[in-house]
Amino acid sequence: MATPTVGYTSARGLAQSIRNLLVYKGVHFQDKRYEFGPAPAYEKQGWAADRASLGLAFPNLPYYIEGDVRLTQTLAILRYLGKKHGLDARTERDAMELSLLEQQAHDLQWLLVLTSMNPNTTQARESHEKKLAESLNQWQKHLKTRKWALGDSLTYVDFLLYEAFDWNRHYAPGMFEGRPEILDYLKRFEELPKLKEYFASDKYTKWPIMAPYMFWGH
């Protein structure tokens, strides 16, 4: 069986949910990192050559290669891995809910990506924290009766949601105070088999979260 490759930059970024899922399932994979070059271009060193030679239909980062499987786009990769490793919905009704939860987690993650692109950092933070409070209120209510996003069973969406929560916890730690449901969720995830050891190892990149040309996260 071919060893999978996850390709991304040297930042934690949009590939970390994929890395975490593979680690949790005990999958040995190549963690291909493209280092950023110097300012102002911050070119991803080696990516220009690879993007033309890897056989990707829509070259982008992150990418996932496993034999004939060649995927880009974080959500597409997570969906594939969820089905492959038993971390997907088991009923049609659960699949419907999981697709909604996926989009909500994705929105929360991208809320911070877009905020980090804004050069007006003060205005960006004010707007972000207002939207973040609304989102956290919804997730807090949702998790009151659920161990994981969908219920008692861990799914691929939890790997996306953990990243969305943890990024925002770095950005605005005070927003998570008094939210035991979310904090307990984060703790449960961090203590999952294999992930606890991974997070404590030098293989894990906690920081930087974003690329060096962003206004936060590096």
UniProtKB/TrEMBL annotation:
Q: In which domain of life is the source organism classified? A: Eukaryota
User: Which residue ranges does the record assign to the GST C-terminal domain?
Assistant: 90-209
Q: Which SUPFAM superfamilies match?
A: GST C-terminal domain-like, Thioredoxin-like
Q: Which molecular function GO terms apply here?
A: glutathione transferase activity
Set out the biological process GO terms recorded for this chain's protein: glutathione metabolic process
Catalytic activity entry: RX + glutathione = an S-substituted glutathione + a halide anion + H(+)
Xref: Gene3D superfamilies: 1.20.1050.10, Glutaredoxin (3.40.30.10)
Q: Which Pfam families match?
A: GST_C_3 (PF14497), GST_N (PF02798)
Location of the GST N-terminal domain: 2-89
Q: What class of enzyme is it?
A: transferase
InterPro entries with a match to the protein in the record: Glutathione-S-Trfase_C-like (IPR010987), Glutathione-S-Trfase_C_sf (IPR036282), Glutathione_S-Trfase (IPR040079), Glutathione_S-Trfase_N (IPR004045), GST_C (IPR004046), GST_superfamily (IPR050213), Thioredoxin-like_sf (IPR036249)
**Looking at the keywords, is Transferase present?**
yes
Annotated function: Conjugation of reduced glutathione to a wide number of exogenous and endogenous hydrophobic electrophiles.
Recorded family membership: Belongs to the GST superfamily. Mu family.
Spell out the protein name for this chain.
Answer: glutathione transferase
Task: Identify the species of origin.
Answer: Amblyomma cajennense
